[in-house]
Amino acid sequence: MNDGSKEDELVCAVDLGGTNLRAANIDRNGCLHERVRNSTPQSDKPEDVVARVAAAVRDCEAQALKRGARIQSVSVVVPGTVHIETGLVVNAPNLRSVQGYKLGPALESALHRPVLLENDANASALGERWQGAARGHHTIICLTLGTGVGGGIILDGKLWRGPDGTAGELGHTTVEPFGGAQCKCGNTGCLEVYASATAIVRLTRESLAQHPNSLLHSINATELTSERICNAAIAGDELALDVFQRAGVYLGIAMANFVNIFNPEMIVIGGGVSAAWEVFAQHARAEVRKRAFPVPAQRCRIERAKCGDDAGLLGAAWLALECGDSSPL
Amino acid sequence: MNDGSKEDELVCAVDLGGTNLRAANIDRNGCLHERVRNSTPQSDKPEDVVARVAAAVRDCEAQALKRGARIQSVSVVVPGTVHIETGLVVNAPNLRSVQGYKLGPALESALHRPVLLENDANASALGERWQGAARGHHTIICLTLGTGVGGGIILDGKLWRGPDGTAGELGHTTVEPFGGAQCKCGNTGCLEVYASATAIVRLTRESLAQHPNSLLHSINATELTSERICNAAIAGDELALDVFQRAGVYLGIAMANFVNIFNPEMIVIGGGVSAAWEVFAQHARAEVRKRAFPVPAQRCRIERAKCGDDAGLLGAAWLALECGDSSPL
Question: Quick check: A81 contacting B, CB < 8 Å?
């Protein structure tokens, strides 16, 4: 069903993470073509980041040209709050070098073309709606359980960013008001300190002593990762199962709130921790059933994301296509 | 600045509460003219409610006609979830007789004219935006602290109702996940069980024994109301101050969540309990500063509502005017 002429129109999408930089040429059908991977510069100079992103885009462009395809637009997602109109990165705790920097205009100068900028969790939500779990839905909440917990809100097909672009910080809603764990954001008891990969490792460390028979004692404490804890849970390890249950319950408390607040058609759970979805989904869903109003709880499908690491790239591409054409879906 | 011809165009707005029924003719300038008050029928027959509302509208119409003014449209707010397209009352815990009833069509048959239906908290938010505390703002969260806690969400000037009309149940977001007080909705630890008028009375009763010197001991336990507790707080009573502090902290926890979720320009606090706003505002605001991200927290003004009991009537009127004219503001 591919339309050759449309396939030639490419967006170069860039996912600028705190650690890795990934880029891909994406066509109107959501197919990813040429890819480029690199690391994100760890210097404190935003110019280094600009140079690395620009190099990745040029690399993608050169690869596309070899097969006669053209890049029509460039779209970049960043791990932070973005002011869309000005291209300013308002806040980026995992990429401090560009915090307070007008990354959008700097990239436009370097590349001599317009560059779209978007928050990574917002882009992931759009990607899942375009090509993933939320296809065909209009009102979607997306939670990305990674190093932190990112959130994206799509209402009637439109991303809700808020007047400062800071909306959608769903990982920083309080689920444990008093005596909760300290969050990097300054608050205590945020969803992020119970349902992120970092939280899974912390919760496991805190409970190791109480589970002397856990398989996880065989792993060096410094090598404990959420993937390993996930594998232990799948293998039936009691400690790992207990940790994912606690994460699932807190996730369910937050999701019940989102169900009562938004009446969404769907909540999509992505990010690295979602690899363990089968382990904690039941606990999260049970909490939503217990706490949310019946009508919106019944309406809301809660599913694992489908686009994996490419959700952000796909969302970035979709935004660029939407800007160039009012109805890409 | 009144325009005589415009002033003649009236909306008959009806606020159908669980106990009281209030109606008023409202002009395009937001002025309330003729008013009608009655009680809401306590029978289990929805037809009795329809008859009482229709009588109030006819009464308003007759009064308007005496001075040569015409009612152009009718708009009714109800204490429950409304499916706007069909006029069905999905859920109405405080007006069970109309729950599951197509109140919109029934009123249209009785009055031989179109009738708009809206949820009371949603209408209050619109009323505060049109004529109250949120004038000139586009993205507003409205909390009505009454018998329960109602919520209204206005994003970019548009009410967010959700696909089933159940969105905005901000009073039923969890602020105390474990061991919280039982809420009528089935959940425990909802904002409503800490910040409603009912909650103020319960929290006071629970703490009376610990405050033997409280002024509130002079009031018969069955006559304890949130108004009286508010007056005691203003008079410096320690127990009353403690109760409002706790309510303020929980309200602040919920509001910090809304700030991080929506990045609103404003949160408006209405309802009977807001009479004590000066007593608990500082605690609520401190919690928002402590928990929410700095940029959206600084953006968000948190103010007491200004329209009092008329907020719902005004919002109902605004909706009717908006339907007849695309730009009433």
Answer: yes
How confident is the model at residue A3, as a pLDDT?
Answer: 45
Phi-psi region at A263: left, alpha or beta (left = phi > 0; alpha = psi -120 to 50):
left
Same domain flag for B99 and B162: no
**C-alpha atoms less than 13 angstroms from C-alpha of B175 in its C-beta half-sphere:** 25
DSSP sequence for A155-196: ETTEE---TTS----GGGSBS--SSPPBPTTS-BSBTHHHHS
Q: Are residues B168 and B106 in the same domain?
A: no
pTM of this structure: 0.94
Q: What is the model's pLDDT at position A1? A: 41
Cβ contact B286:B103 at 8 Å: no
Contact A290 B187 (CB under 8 A): yes
The domain tally of chain B equals 2
pLDDT for the residue A93 = 82
Q: Chain A to chain B, count of Cβ pairs less than 8 Å apart? A: 125
Q: Is residue B329 part of a domain?
A: no
Alpha-carbon span A284 to B10, nearest angstrom: 50
CA dist., res. A92 & res. A74, Å (int):
21
Report yes or no on A210 lying in a domain.
Answer: yes
Q: pLDDT tens digits for B166-202? A: 999 999 999 999 999 999 999 999 999 999 999 999 9
